[in-house]
Write a structure and sequence with these properties.
The protein is of the alpha/beta class. It has one domain: 3-Layer(aba) Sandwich (Rossmann fold). The protein is 47% helix and 17% strand. An 8-stranded mixed beta sheet has the order 1-2-4-3-5-6-7-8, with helices on both faces. Helix 3 links the parallel strand 5 and strand 6. The chain is globular.
Length: 283
């Protein structure tokens, strides 16, 4: 049986636009928010495991996948639509789980709507140390330079959706061990379906957000999951900084995995999430 047969694709109207999402499994709900150049399909390897114990709701954010477009995009706006989605479906997630860019959306949601979820899980959350602040400023400058320039945005979009670009970033930035099958199967469709405006404006948004400051205002328990070989995040510094904060933070580092740890090592990620939820609630 095809793995796609395990998922039911649905749509719901939220604040006047259509949000596309996939569901699978039975049990208490978990909600998933994808990364910068992906859609719901990037979660399939992890979802195949977690669906045995939970009811999964895996969104395409506005401007991504098969969800409708917006006039403007930011992590805060996406968090508002996430809240509207949860309210519309009348669920109370055990956790809202974000990956990479999705950790900014999930964190903004956790700060602004603490009563709509029991916990949040951040996979590959990017904190800005001194070196990464310089990189973020450069990316922000570059994205602002092309923002609104339709021809430039179209050129960037065409580059991003090529297999060459996907393989390059996977090999040198996102993965511990390059795996062509994982990228071809779970990464390419999202790149092709995302709106160029969503890519540019969400990129600008996340480069301007200080994730540490957002987490200062989150009251629910938080689990941070990293690949030990993450090339985008200094995970030791990230955890040391969070340990000094007042919130309820938990941490798990997974060996032989890079930034997209949920794609490379879905089983230990599933175990980390399950252990975390069982620590606070009876799953």
């Amino acid at each position: 049986m095809s793995i796609m047969n395990c998922f039911k694709i649905m749509q719901v109207k939220v604040k006047g636009i259509t949000i596309n999402y996939a569901t699978a499994g039975k049990g208490k709900p978990l909600v998933f928010i994808h990364g910068w150049t992906n859609n719901w399909m990037g979660w399939i390897p992890l979802a195949k495991i977690l669906k045995n114990n939970y009811k999964l709701y895996i969104l395409d954010l506005p401007g991504f996948g098969d969800s409708d477009s917006l006039q403007h995009y930011s992590a805060e706006i996406a968090a508002d639509y996430l809240a509207g989605f949860i309210k519309k479906l009348k669920i109370k997630p055990e956790a809202v789980i974000g990956l990479s860019m999705g950790t900014f959306v999930t964190s903004c949601f956790g700060k602004n709507y603490p009563k709509l979820t029991k916990t949040i899980v951040l996979i590959g959350a990017v904190f800005k140390d001194k070196k990464r602040k310089v990189t973020s400023k450069f990316i922000e400058f570059w994205l602002k330079l092309v923002n609104g320039r339709k021809r430039a945005e179209s050129v960037i979009k065409k580059i991003i959706e090529t297999r060459f670009f996907a393989y390059l970033t996977a090999k040198y930035l996102n993965m511990y061990e390059f795996n062509k099958f994982l990228i071809d199967t779970y990464g390419m469709i999202g790149k092709k379906k995302m709106k160029k405006e969503a890519y540019i404006q969400m990129g600008i948004s996340v480069t301007t957000i200080q994730l540490q400051e957002v987490l200062d205002n989150i009251k629910v328990p938080v689990l941070l999951i990293y690949g030990k070989q993450d090339k985008l995040v200094n995970i030791r510094n990230a955890w040391q900084n969070l340990k000094r904060k007042k919130g309820n933070f938990n941490y798990r580092a997974i060996n032989k995995a890079g930034h997209i740890v949920s794609l490379e090592r879905p089983r230990p990620v599933a175990e980390a999430i399950t252990d975390f939820l069982q620590k606070y609630y009876k799953a």
